[in-house]
Each structure stands twice: as structure tokens, then as C-alpha cells.
Amino acid sequence: MEGRPNPHRVVVVGGGFAGLYAARELGKGGALVDVTLVDRRNHHLFQPLLYQVATGALSPGEIAQPLRSIFRKQHNTRVLLGEAVRIDPEARVVVLSDGGPIPYDTLIVATGAHHTYFGHDEWAPFAPGLKTIDDATEIRRRILIAFEAAEREADPELRQAWMTFVLVGGGPTGVELAGALGEIANDTLRQDFRSIRPQDAHILLVEALDRILPTYPERAAASARRQLERLGVDVRTGTRVVHIDDHVVRMETAAGPEEVRTRTVLWAAGVLAATFGRTVAAATGAETDRNGRIRVGEDLTIPGHPEIFVLGDAAVQPWLPGRPVPGVAQGGIQPGTWAGKAILHRLRGQPVPPFRFSNRGDVAVIGRLSGVTDIPWLGPLGRQSGFVAWMLWLGIHIVYLIGFANRIVVSVRWAWSFLTRGRSTRLITGHPLLPPIEDPEPPA
Fold first, then answer.
1. Which residues contact 51 (CB under 8 A, 6 or more apart)?
2. pLDDT at residue 67, rounded to an integer
3. How many independent structural domains does the chain possess?
4. Of 218, 242, 268, at which residue does a domain stop?
């Protein structure tokens, strides 16, 4: 229409929690804004449940939703499948790997983070991390292959190595993975094999700090440790991994060096900002922390660049003195929602209050009817363990899962798993499909 101003162009890079919630909020701006969401994957992934895919409890499609379907009815938003590789802050364009530049008036960087091996990238082939669906299905393959290999290995030492699982990192991901592995060994696979007893598996959780779940209160962390030990998990704190290969993990403990023979190592320690976030920092001269996250102001923008927001795991978002917003789902959801509102307020000439993170708490599930919570706003009721924590975890994750159909399917799947103690998605996919048996046991 003649005389109508051009819509404000907002480019959102990243379809995780921060990018998704920012784009959804901007959808309320109608013709005021033109939103372009760029991601190198075509789906939004509900990462808190990724470990359930890795342990065969859920299928990938049950915790992911195609971005195009999410924004189908949001007519001021388009979705592009592509990889952002560079920005020109002067010309205000984002350049994709295929060369197609996308102009912006406001840029939202929400590219998240990936796992880091603290300078030991040579460990990556032997110790996969858990950030994507591909990671989850690879971990699932390795776990299931390990039991299959143990079933056929005749040599007791080789068999024990296959039945030893080492998880590095005692944060929520490591704790939940260890608890799920304990359930698999003690419950799910209990009657599935003839030559081995899955419950004899040695599950070792290694944490360099003096306790697991370091962001939780000490009481909750101690409860989590007890619940893990009841599942047969060997929890080692104050233990630092110094070497990983396809047969051995070497560790430094207070008592001295220790070597563990294992064929399955899972990595749940440390994150590094995604490459595009570090590229933005270099282009704008932004300050970063040692993990490559950009330090942003109270308005979640890069100092000197009010047109560039950096959100979620790509940023050091201010919260408490000396303590930034934690790298959890709410650390992406709240900033994303706030940034979308802030952009619309700016365009309407309304004041924009500084971002304030609201700590809605943490919940970690450890196994069947087990878990711990730290929900400060509930007072003493927010510090639960066992069954109550498990129920809170179920409810919170169902509420925040994207897509009504996914909520229904996951609810039904969890109910069936609870009744049957089973994990129906125990599929070995990827390569190799067969375990490398060194000393096959002859048929009886």
C-alpha cells in the first residue's frame, strides 16, 4: 500500500529455544516486522529429552518438530534451511554458506553451543557428546552394541570391558544418562540375554569437581548420588579424565592414577559456543568468555551494536553478580521471548525495560520414580527428591514440549514404559551395525 513503511527486517539465526521463542513473539508484530529464521537443521529439538532418545525410551520424531510446521500460520515469518557463516555489521547482512546474503535491520544470534573436549579433540571419536539427534542415535547404537558384543565375547576380560560404561561429566546430562543406563541394565534388558547378566554392567560416572550436579544445592546433589548408587552407578567425584581411546580411560584421582578398560565412553562435560557466534564476535569486536560466548549487556545486545541480540548458550547473559544465566532451557526461552518483545517495543516507540532472568528452577530425573528438584520460588516444597521430583519432571517437560501431538505421544509412551518397564525404541542404526568381536563364544 502506498505510503506504508517497509516492515522492519529481523533475521534470527538458530531454531533452538532462544531463536524459536524470539521468532514466535515477533509473529505478534504482524506487518510491522518481516522475520527470517535460518537454521542448518529443519527442526526444533527439545534437547532436555535428548538423552531419552539416546537410551531408547523415545524416538527422535517425538522430541522434534519441523520448523516450517511450527511457523505455518505465522505469515510474517519465513524459514530458510541454511548455514550462516559470516556477517557484515556495516552493511547489515548475514552471509550463508551457499553465498546468499540476507539483509537485516535487527539480527538475533541464537546458535547455541556444542560439546568441547578441553583441548583434546582426539577424544571425540571415542566419546560422543549429546547435542543433536545424530549424537543421540549414535550413543544408542554404542550402548546396544556393547551388550550385543558382551553376549558373544568368550574372554571374560573382553566381556567385562564391553559391559563397562564410562560417563564423563556429572551435570544434569551425565546424571540423567547414568540413571537411564542403570535402568536399562537392571530392568529393561534383564531377561533379554542368555550368556550375560545385564545387571552386572559397571556404570561409572566421573566428575572432576567434588560433587555431581554442582549447580544444585548440596542436599539435592547428595540425594542424586544416593539414588544413582541404588541403581548400581559407581559415582566418582574429584576425578579428572586424562586419556581416552577405544579400549581405555585413564583418570587422575586423589589416590593416584587409575585405568579403566571400557569400550563405551559417553561425554557430558563442557560446552563451547557454536562457530557462528564466535564469527559474530570477531566481526563486531565483542568480548567473549573462555568458551567463546559473547558478553552482552542488560538489553542482551552487543555493546556498540544495539541491532544485534545474542541469546541463549551463545551469550553470557547477565543475572546475578558473578553468575550469568545458566545454560538450561529457560536460559533460552526467557531471553528469546524478551528479545522479541523488546524489538516490538522499540518499533512502537515504547520503553524497553532491562532483561531480568527469573529462576524457575531445575529438575533432573535419575530413574523410575527418582529425581531431584531445585525450584526456589516454591520454597521448601521446591526441594524434592524421589517420586515427587519425578512427577514434577514429567509435568514440566510435557508442558514445554513443542507440538500438541508430541505431548500426547510422549505421554502415552511414558505411561506404557512405566507399566511395562520397557524401552521400545531399542534400534541399532548407523554404522557399524555389528560389534567387533575379538574372541567369539561358540554356540552351546
1. 130, 136, 173, 176, 177, 180
2. 97
3. 2
4. 268
Kindly tell me the sign of the dihedral angle through the C-alpha atoms of 413, 416, 418, 421.
Answer: negative
- Structural domain contains residue 152: yes
- Which DSSP symbol is given to 379? G
| 45, HSE (Cβ side, Cα atoms, 13 Å) | 23
Q: What is the mean pLDDT of residues 271-281?
A: 94
Looking at residue 1, its pLDDT comes to 41
62, 138, 151, 176: which is the annotated catalytic residue? 176
> 3-state class of 437 per DSSP?
coil
Write out the DSSP string of 75-140: TTEEEEE--EEEEETTTTEEEETTS-EEE-SEEEE---EEE--TT-GGGTTTS---SSHHHHHHHH
The residue segments making up the domain with residue 225 are 121-268
CATH code for position 252: 3.50.50.100
Average pLDDT across the chain, whole number: 92
* pLDDT at position 3 over 70: no
At residue 153, does pLDDT exceed 60? yes
**Cα–Cα distance between 187 and 235 in angstroms, integer?**
20
Establish whether 2 is a catalytic residue: no
**Predicted confidence (pLDDT) per residue in 380-414, tens digit:** 666 778 888 888 888 888 888 888 778 888 888 88
The Cα–Cα gap between 21 and 28 comes to 12
Q: What is the pLDDT of residue 395?
A: 86
Helices within 193-312 (DSSP H only) = 218-230, 275-284
pTM, two decimal places: 0.92
Domain assignment present for 374: no
